[in-house]
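We emphasize that the prediction below concerns an isolated chain of 155 residues; any contacts that depend on oligomerization or on bound cofactors are therefore not represented. The input was used exactly as deposited, without trimming of termini.
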Amino acid sequence: VKRIFKQQVPTVGAFEKHPLHHHHMVEITMSSGSDAMLFMLASFMLSKLTLVNCTEITDEGLGSIGRFCHNLLFLEIGEGCCGITGAGLSALAEGCPNLEQIVLHSIENVIDGLIAIGKNCRKLKHLTLHNIYKDMNTAFSKIAEKCPDLYDLDL
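Result of the prediction step, given as a token string:
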């Protein structure tokens, strides 16, 4: 299964299965891709999703992960994902209440997304924000109020 998957989707950098309560969870790292590819990947039980330099992925693609990947535990949106904004984070947060770790790099208009994360992702333990310089007092207060397990905030 591992080789076939990599051949069908050559831009996926990693594909691993891990046992978890009789299910297999999938970890995906993408260094390029599209909304259509994310929609296809949403049919897997994703536990970890890392996107780096995915210039073709937009808020719509991230929203498909939110609609179908309710067991997502880890999300990283790295440098070069310029089509993703706080609106995509909001859509993802509404459907992924089990997120425990989020790493964000250089996302535009991120405040509403961070507020949605605080409202919906109550199991959040680690939040890392790089190159995000807007005034985020409202977002941080919502996260602090709604995420009692948060113990690592890296700015």
